[in-house]
Automatic annotation (TrEMBL), chain A:
Protein name per Swiss-Prot or TrEMBL: Phosphate transport system permease protein PstA
Domain ABC transmembrane type-1, residue spans: 64-266
Cell location: Cell membrane
Keywords: Cell membrane, Membrane, Transmembrane, Transmembrane helix, Transport
Similarity comment: family membership: Belongs to the binding-protein-dependent transport system permease family. CysTW subfamily.
TM region(s), chain numbering: 12-39, 59-89, 101-125, 131-151, 248-270
One Pfam assignment: BPD_transp_1
Lineage of producing organism: Bacteria, Candidatus Desantisiibacteriota
CDD domains, A to Z: TM_PBP2
Automatic annotation (TrEMBL), chain B:
All residue ranges annotated as the ABC transporter domain in the record: 4-245
Record GO cellular component, one term: membrane
Gene3D superfamilies reported in the protein's UniProt record: P-loop containing nucleotide triphosphate hydrolases
Keywords for this protein: ATP-binding, Nucleotide-binding, Transport
GO biological process: phosphate ion transmembrane transport
CDD domains tied to this protein: ABC_PstB_phosphate_transporter (cd03260)
Protein name per its UniProtKB record: Phosphate ABC transporter ATP-binding protein
InterPro entries, A to Z: AAA+_ATPase (IPR003593), ABC_transporter-like_ATP-bd (IPR003439), ABC_transporter-like_CS (IPR017871), P-loop_NTPase (IPR027417), PstB-like (IPR005670)
Cross-referenced PANTHER family: ABC TRANSPORTER I FAMILY MEMBER 17
Transmembrane segments: none
PROSITE patterns referenced in this protein's UniProt entry, alphabetically: ABC_TRANSPORTER_1, ABC_TRANSPORTER_2
Length: 278, 250
């Protein structure tokens, strides 16, 4: 028997909208749950003072600093490396075995659990290269972790710039590199930025890889070789060791708000970028 | 003396023999129209003149192309410099995603023109020569993508003129345009040949008859016939030319 197309249409619309709705409900539930438990704890003092009694009392200042510094160090290494590799893959070598192997490798790397990266970073940076638990060890480990995301998203972004623009640029007497710099890259920025935002989100939220490589010191770092504790690690330790659930939720709320803010800022930048030339 | 002299040019893309033993001379300050059905090699011919075929790593060639007596495939010729002398207009209007003004200064700036006054003058002169100035003079900083198709193509012509080339290649420049825009481009072409040598590839034999001083007919990678447009359209030597022009195939 054939189902009336009007009925099947209505059924599918209902099913699909329910799926979308459910996804949103879960997201909002998590955000509201965290914020309702965390926001009462938040105040300027919580953000601006040092923790005392292992975090049972006091604020989270050094963990905020640790989160920012570690993410920044990761990006400083991962962005030039990743975007450079993406340009090379997309513009300088021919599609073939090499590109396939690199792409397959990047995809595999992206799927490796973060704790494995942590272990790898611990052995390579902390032990063999004697960097100790430090911002540098943690940042480099995070950089390795987000590198595949940056390479793949940047490569897609570079490839999505129309080929005809490259031909036009070359026909106007630009060299290949001038074409990449003036036509390809500026128009790939929104895509590249998306990859960077995803990486920032992953870096901020990472816990396992960081405990192994950056340690969990509660002091404010003064050099790249100091150990730091990020907000995620702080949250993990506070709740795992049962030190203070109240402060754990406070930390989580700051994390959630921070990630929301980064995404909003990124959307704003993307919007401005795409509006300018079209 | 001829501006461009193509001698026994063969071009291959991998195993495809795209252009077969083409020899022809292009006179200075004339319009040469290259006609022929799709896949006849006319675009390959055009793109060999500014070495844009070089972008395809599978491209091989034999023969010579002399521009003012100098082989453009010689080792000491820099294709980047060559492309400034031999400008190109593409089939579809492709403005770069920048402002109208930036589109025009793109090439000259790369070539080393830094002086602002000089660049401004260049923008105005190029737009006037491509019959676009009056339509855009008040909004030079608007995105080029906002112009209509016909205006975009004239902007592309202006952009090429700003390089002060010797030769302008046009690859079916009116294929995506309405008759009025086409007429404007053809008007520009006729004015431009006083200063430039123009080679236009076209699918439209009537356009070739209108703008071409000379016409070259390509078929399956071969140059079948080449001569003065008037003669070619009234008394072609080759039967295939006659059949193509009269619309019996192609």
């Amino acid at each position: 028997m054939r189902i009336d197309p009007k009925v099947s249409q209505r059924i599918m619309v209902t099913v699909l909208s329910l799926a979308t709705g459910l996804a949103l409900v879960i997201l909002f539930f998590i955000i509201i749950f965290i914020l309702s438990k965390g926001i009462p704890v938040l105040n300027w003092k919580f953000l601006s003072t040092f923790p005392s009694k292992m975090g049972k009392a006091g604020g989270i200042l050094p963990t905020i600093a640790g989160t920012f510094i570690l993410t920044l160090v990761a990006l400083v290494f991962a962005v030039p490396l990743g975007v450079g590799a993406a340009i090379y893959l997309a513009e300088y070598i021919r599609e073939g075995k090499t590109t396939k192997i690199v792409r397959f490798g990047a995809d595999c790397l992206a799927g490796i659990p973060s704790i494995i990266f942590g272990l790898f970073g611990f052995i390579l940076f902390v032990v063999i290269l004697k960097m100790g638990w430090s911002i540098l060890s943690g940042g480099l480990t995070l950089a390795f972790m987000v590198l595949p995301t940056i390479i793949r998203t940047s490569e897609e972004a570079v490839k999505s710039v129309p080929y005809s623009w490259r031909e036009v640029s070359l026909s106007l007497g630009a060299t290949k590199w001038e074409t990449i710099r003036k036509v390809v890259l500026p128009n790939a920025v929104p895509g590249i930025l998306t990859g960077i935002i995803l990486s920032v989100g992953r870096s901020i939220g990472e816990t396992a890889a960081i405990i192994f490589t950056a340690g969990s010191s509660l002091r404010l770092p003064t050099s790249l070789f100091d150990s730091v504790r990020t907000m995620s690690v702080h949250f993990y330790i506070l709740s795992r060791e049962g030190i203070s659930m109240k402060n754990a939720y406070g930390t989580a709320a700051v994390l959630v708000i921070l990630i929301l803010a980064i995404n909003l800022a990124a959307y704003w930048i993307l919007h401005r970028f795409t509006k300018r030339n079209t | 003396m001829s501006k461009i002299s193509v001698k026994k040019l063969d071009i291959f893309f991998g195993k495809t023999h795209a252009l077969k033993n083409v020899t022809l001379d292009v006179s200075a300050n004339k319009v040469l129209a290259a006609i022929g059905p799709a896949g006849s090699g006319k675009t390959t011919f055009l793109r060999s003149l500014n070495r844009l075929n070089d972008l395809n790593p599978d491209m091989r060639y034999t023969g010579k192309i002399l521009l003012d007596g100098k082989n453009i495939y010689d080792e000491d010729v820099n294709p980047v410099e060559l492309r400034r002398k031999v400008g190109m207009i593409f089939a579809l209007p492709i403005p770069l995603p920048m402002s109208i003004c930036e589109n025009i200064t793109y090439g000259p700036k790369l070539a080393g023109t830094k002086n602002r006054a000089e660049l401004r003058e260049l923008v105005e002169k190029s737009l006037e020569d491509s019959f676009l100035w009056d339509e855009v003079k008040d909004r030079l900083d608007d995105p080029a993508m906002k112009l209509s198709g016909g205006q975009q193509q004239r902007l592309c012509i202006a952009r090429t003129l700003a390089l002060k080339p010797d030769v302008i290649l046009m690859d079916e420049p009116c294929s995506g345009l309405d008759p009025i825009s086409t007429a404007k481009i053809e008007e520009a072409m006729t004015a431009l040949k006083k200063e430039y040598t123009i080679i236009i590839v076209t699918n439209n034999t009537k356009q070739a008859a209108r703008v071409g001083d000379n016409t070259a007919f390509f078929l399956m990678g071969e140059l079948i016939e080449y001569g003065e447009t008037g003669k070619m359209f009234t008394a072609p030597n080759d039967k295939r030319t006659e059949e193509y022009i009269s619309g019996r195939f192609g």
